[in-house]
Amino acid sequence: MVQHSSVMIIGKGAREHVLSYAYEKSEQIDKIIIVPGNDFMKYGRQKETIIDKNCSLKNPESILKLARKYKPDLVDVAQDDAIAHGTVDLLQRNGFQTFGPTKNAARIEWDKKWSREFMWRFGIPQPAFKYFDGEGLAEKYVKEIYQENPVCLVYVKATGLCSGKGALKSTCLEQAMQNINQMKNIPEGAGKVFLIEEGLVGEEFSYYAVSDGNTYFIFNSAQDNKTIFNFDEGDQTGGMGAISPAMITKPFADQIDKEMILRMIEGMDLEGNQYRGVLYLGGIIVDGKPINIEYNARWGDPECQVVLPAVKTDYFEIVSSCLNGRLDEVRISQDNKTRVCVVGASRGYPESYSQVKGKRIYGLEEVMREGGVTIFGAGVEVQDGKFYANGGRLFSVVAEGEDILEARQRAYSSIARISVEGNNLHYRTDIGWRDVERFFERN
User: Fold this and answer.
1) Annotated domain spans of the chain
2) pLDDT by residue (tens digit) across 339-383?
3) DSSP characters for 168-186?
4) Which of 303, 418, 423, 417 is nearest to 355 (CA)?
5) CA separation for the pair 32, 50 (Å, rounded)
6) SS3 (DSSP) at 82
7) 196: closest CA among 165, 159, 162?
8) Residue 336: CB partners within 8 Å, gap ≥ 6?
9) Given a cut of 90, is residue 161 above it in pLDDT?
């Protein structure tokens, strides 16, 4: 790669906004193109930033058309639909330097049935599971489970992509039957295949690694908060907040690396699906043992907002080394700060929030002037310098500090100064509470 390069990022949410900031810090990058992007990504930029909405994340040909228009030196395919539909493969075939796993390698995310079988083949710790071709067989199986234990925890899962909402929690037979019925109606969900998994009780964590197919580097750990309400109550969402690093992972770092990251990278290579890109591991600590919940084939949202800003090494250099198979030649360093992300969402998300669209968002400008705080946009529309709600998850407030207390206090004092017209802003008020307790116990 040469200096004075351009990068095209594929995606439209806060995750892609974070990635654009990471590339912007590189002295080698002059121009950033984000497709389809969102309006807020152009606000307050230091380098030329282009947003082009003339594509669909589920239509690789439309993305190829834009790549041909802008001729970027690098394309970073960051969004799950785009990866699953083979965008990386298509761009590579057409001569573009493209970062991200191929469609076959990304099967680890978009086909949960295949992913579970892969983990079984390579001895990666995971929950007990079964899959069924049809709702009748799935219903029969959960009846047998609850006949044996009427109060056990079971998850009904989609085998395909569901924007972070494809795992339905069941604590009784009636709820499990409702979830099977609900899952069959998700267009891109289970379809005719139902994945029924043992429910695990413990504390969850997120791990991210970047790989050139042979070697890999693990970033700081994180912890996501997936449900809409405090203390992990309510419906599954795309994520309502995150912290990094997550204290829960410290005693298990070597075990997670060897049993879940190394085995995955080596296993994919052995089966002819060399994994090149960012790998997500969602895990849970159960009775002092880390267990895999799922793999994803890209950065997560909102964890990317708290993990990637800690990377001090030129991100363009990291990605370029992966494409050239020389990741082991790059010394990747990270800072020691703690970061807290609180997601601001439209009231009613994730169910019904259309009534919030077009409502004015107040306070973003003031908060962006605060030191140690960054706002990454997802569902924010910009008109004449004013901000309006245009989605479910609207923005991420990310604050940094020397410890969890400082970062958390800064994040919540910032988001408290933001509002959506008509009292239509919703956010969780408990992000990071577990590590706050650990901090006081340790000190």
Assistant:
1) 5-102, 128-198, 203-329, 338-442
2) 999 999 999 999 999 999 999 999 999 999 999 999 999 999 999
3) EEESSHHHHHHHHHHHHT-
4) 423
5) 6
6) helix
7) 159
8) none
9) no
CA atoms of 174 and 81, how far apart (whole Å)? 32
CB burial string 63-85: b at 16+ within 10 A, e below: bbebbeeeebbbbbbbbbbbbbb
Q: Are 329 and 217 in contact (CB under 8 A)?
A: no
Class of domain 203-329: alpha beta
Amino acid 387: pLDDT: 98
The topology (CATH level 3) of 128-198 is Dna Ligase; domain 1 (3.30.1490)
Q: Which CATH superfamily is domain 338-442 in?
A: Phosphoribosylglycinamide synthetase, C-terminal domain (3.90.600.10)
Q: How far apart are CA 266 and CA 348, in angstroms?
A: 43
The structural architecture, per CATH, of the domain 5-102 is 3-Layer(aba) Sandwich (3.40)
Q: Are 395 and 378 in contact (CB under 8 A)?
A: yes
Cα Rg of the chain (Å, integer): 21
d(CA 237, CA 350): 6
- Is-same-fold flag (5-102; 338-442)? no
Is 1 a residue whose pLDDT tops 50?
no
Q: Amino acid letter at 38?
A: N
Residues in the chain: 443
Residue whose structure tokens are 């509470």: 433
For β-strands 167-170 and 154-157, DSSP reports them as antiparallel
Which ranges constitute the DSSP H helices of 282-377? Answer: 303-307, 315-323, 364-368
Whether the upstream peptide bond of residue 309 has omega within 30° of 0, thus cis, is: no
Interval 30-65: pLDDT, tens: 999 999 999 999 999 999 999 999 999 999 999 999
Q: Are strands 29-36 and 5-11 parallel, antiparallel or unpaired?
A: parallel
Please write the tens of the pLDDT for every residue from 79-122.
Answer: 999 999 999 999 999 999 999 999 999 999 999 999 999 999 99
